[in-house]
């Protein structure tokens, strides 16, 4: 499948996904990096990696549905089969989510269902958990609530502050996302009746 990575910022997950997809036999090719923010740092990194980029600036549209129609049209025009949200900071409406049901992944920096929303590392420190991590899931209309494809855990250390914990989680994100995308792109993890079905092989 031809995947598009959607970003809004620096794109550190995008960089690791582009690198991973270069491996011979990787079951997806990264055909596009698309940002909703024209100035996103990840756009320059994608161009440096030779990946086509696009910008669909949400500020140029009167409302969310108009933005999503433009986004959807651009992705279809590029022949995209699979969406990979990586630091994409726009909430998507049920219309868009349903249009890409089973073909859209997101990475969230917590062990869902714990700590939905933002500032997840601050939430983890405040809650005093001793284990934290990241989750790759299929996107569903409810925010940070989709069927889980893969997770990675890290310890929370006694002297951790938000930055230290975030760095430890991000390191795992960069390992987890390429592996999770390969599972889905290779058809070894599929969304079926609202749950993830895993097949040992195709
Ligand atoms: C990461 O914490 C990721 O979990 C979340 O956005 C943050 C930035 O990701 N999706 P990136 O460096 O832009 O890939």
UniProtKB/TrEMBL annotation:
EC number: 2.1.2.2
Functional note: Catalyzes the transfer of a formyl group from 10-formyltetrahydrofolate to 5-phospho-ribosyl-glycinamide (GAR), producing 5-phospho-ribosyl-N-formylglycinamide (FGAR) and tetrahydrofolate.
Family, similarity comment: Belongs to the GART family.
Site (Raises pKa of active site His): 144
A GO CC annotation given for this chain: cytosol
The protein's name in its UniProt record: Phosphoribosylglycinamide formyltransferase
Ligand binding (N(1)-(5-phospho-beta-D-ribosyl)glycinamide): 11-13
Classification of source organism: Bacteria, Pseudomonadati, Pseudomonadota, Alphaproteobacteria, Hyphomicrobiales
Pfam families in the record: Formyl_trans_N
Ranges for domain Formyl transferase N-terminal: 2-181
Top EC group: transferase
Active site, renumbered: 108
Organism field: Methylobacterium oryzihabitans
């Amino acid at each position: 499948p031809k995947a598009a990575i959607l970003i809004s910022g620096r794109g550190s997950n995008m960089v690791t996904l582009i690198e991973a997809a270069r491996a011979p036999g990787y079951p997806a090719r990264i055909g596009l990096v698309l940002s909703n923010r024209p100035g996103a740092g990840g756009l320059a990194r994608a161009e440096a990696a030779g990946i086509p980029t696009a910008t669909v600036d949400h500020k140029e549209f009167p409302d969310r549905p108009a933005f999503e129609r433009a986004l959807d049209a651009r992705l279809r025009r590029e022949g995209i089969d699979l969406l990979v949200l990586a630091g994409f900071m726009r909430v998507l409406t049920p219309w868009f989510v349903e249009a890409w049901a089973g073909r859209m992944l997101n990475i969230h920096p917590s062990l869902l269902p714990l700590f939905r929303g933002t500032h997840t590392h601050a939430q983890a420190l405040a809650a005093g958990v001793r284990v934290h991590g990241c989750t790759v899931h299929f996107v569903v209309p409810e925010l940070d609530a989709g069927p889980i494809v893969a997770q990675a855990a890290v310890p929370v250390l006694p002297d951790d502050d938000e930055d230290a914990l975030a760095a430890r989680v991000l390191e795992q994100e960069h390992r987890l996302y390429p592996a999770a995308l390969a599972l889905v792109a290779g058809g070894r993890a599929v969304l079926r009746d609202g749950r993830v079905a895993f097949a040992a092989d195709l």
